[in-house]
Cobalamin-independent methionine synthase II family protein
Amino acid sequence: MFTATANLILPSTTTGSFPRPRWFDVSMWGRPLDTCMLDVRFREKFQDAMAVVISDQERAGLDILTHGDLHVDEDMAGRAWHHYPLQRWAGFAGDYLQPEETTAPWLHYPPGTLLNEIYTGWRWPHVVDKIAHRPLDYAKLWRIAQGKTRKPVKFGTCCSQVMALFLDIHTPKYKDKREVIWDMAEAMNKELRALRDAGCRCIQIEEPTFHFMANTYGKNHEQVKFMIDAFNREVDGLDDVELWIHTCWGNPNMQRVMEDTSYANSIEIYLERCRGDVWTLEMKDRNQKDLELFTPFKTALKKKIAIGAVSHRVLQADRPEDVAGEIRKALEFIPAERLVVSSDCGFGRQGCNREIAFYKASAIAQGCNIVRRELGLATAYVPAADPVLQIDVVAGRDVTSAARGTA
């Protein structure tokens, strides 16, 4: 079901996380949100930071906003993106070094590399008991964000599959990792249903591992088929929600975790075999590789495709005309009414600074306007590009209201 994008052509958004304001120096560290909010300093900083992130996205001109992942702790390379659920659900304990022989073959890196430092520096809980849902407070987090804007707020969360990559089983209650993934999928489903019941109608599930695994083992591998079933269980019952599925090729501290990347073995999975309405792809950082895969689907696309038109790994702030060029390339293979324009991945998770993230986001909104005008469509107002609202206005420059919305 299309909700947030229902009446929009070339809607603009970003994937999720945003850099924190420098003064937002508190984290939750596994505590319940209610406990944190009893601290008046945390309460003020958290709500003010959320207001700032929402305001920045509105000023950038984005059509669909995110909550910025501000509930996720500010830790090494964004580990807390995985850990937020793991620290709160029943069945997990401790923080341990990942064993050398991980089940993910693409997570081995030599000493002297940043990825080796990240993956040997991260610590993970052990599975020590039956996994069971405990509240993650997604509904409250969404209400805090949505209460600060009239634009739709897309709520994103990592999925059970990607969390399971790093877990070790230390209990006889589980025979293998599949049982762990399935119970986590059921726990997440309870949280997502509560989020839906609170009124959220745009939910993004982040990083199911189909594209990694299908690229390595093939799309019909037994493990891939299981992951599809587990994903569909995780999002069961969300029929009245616009469901986004985010995919990229890794983003710990802005790093690409593998070089051999292709959606060729997973395009059918995302378009036809798993539930969802919008599929996001990392494209800008991969030079739009794999866009041609959509040629057979162009006239019959049921889902919408969100392309990354700016990279989260490059610190050069994109220009609107650069984004417009990426959109024109995508329109050769994806109809305008099925295309969403976003970033490759999030800007947070020990990523780029706030100013660069802001101008990348605004370039997305302004680039969409350029192409909308070329297609004879109405444009969206971008406050950041309004001549009247610049911090410093050159004397004599035409800053009439007629200029609004043209940049």
Remarks:
- The domain at 33-382 is CATH 3.20.20.210 (TIM Barrel).
